[in-house]
Amino acid sequence: MNFDNIWCWLIPLLVGAICGLLGYLMGRRGKDETVEVIDNSAELKSLESANAKLKADLNACNQKLTNAEAKANLKVKTPKADVSTASSFAAGAAAGAVANDVKFDADAAKAVFGKRIKQDDLKVVEGIGPKIEGLFHNFDIKTWKALSETSVEKCQEVLNSGGERYRIHDPGSWPLQAKMAYEGAWKKLAKWQDEHKGGKL
Fold first, then answer.
1. Less Cβ crowding at N or C end of the chain, within 10 Å?
2. Domain range spanning residue 123?
3. pTM (2 d.p.)
4. 3-state SS, one letter per residue, for the chain
5. Residue 115 domain-assigned (yes or no)
């Protein structure tokens, strides 16, 4: 028997046995380690229950809104007034519209502010000067009424159009002030401007 050939067989057998033993030990070690399983089923059920309740509340609110809209539409569709009342209402509305157009009282404005105020002068609004007024005119906002109906976001967009120097202004109160001017509430406007220096809310 050749001993050189024995080592050719013996070395691979020993390596295989060692590898097998290591594999067995590592496999057993993996089985001994316990994996912690977290049970979230109770929390999941609680969240599902809360979600179902919120959906039910939302459906109830939507139903109430639908019912309210239906009642409002029903009231609009069933007028109780006769034709003469309707025509007098239309005439009154037309007169009111004309009255709103000529509502501006320069004397009342002058009595409060101590200077002559021109109708739809946006500079009456504290915080608006000639340049900013020009920016609003570029956006076709030329009256107190138009400014009073403009959102603060739109006012900021107008300011942004003038460049960096105008972005620092705060237009938060401008629609409110314009509404007071449009309605001829001069004392209220003057008082508001005294209490809010710089036109800031």
1. N
2. 106-199
3. 0.49
4. CCHHHHHHHHHHHHHHHHHHHHHHHHHHHHHHCCCCCCCCHHHHHHHHHHHHHHHHHHHHHHHHHHHHHHHHHHHHHCCCCCHHHHHHHHHHHHHHHHHHHCCCCHHHHHHHHCCCCCCCCHHHCCCCCHHHHHHHHHCCCCCHHHHHCCCHHHHHHHHHHCCHHHCCCCCCCHHHHHHHHHCCCHHHHHHHHHHCHHHCC
5. yes
